[in-house]
Amino acid sequence: MPSRLPVAKELAEIFKILAHPDRIRMIEELRAGERDVNGLAATLGLPAPRVSQHLSLLRAHRVVQERREGRHHFYQLHQPDIAQWIVTGLDFVEGRMTGVSSHDISAARKLWTNGHNTPSSDQ
Question: Is the pTM for the entire model greater than 0.85?
Answer without folding.
Answer: no
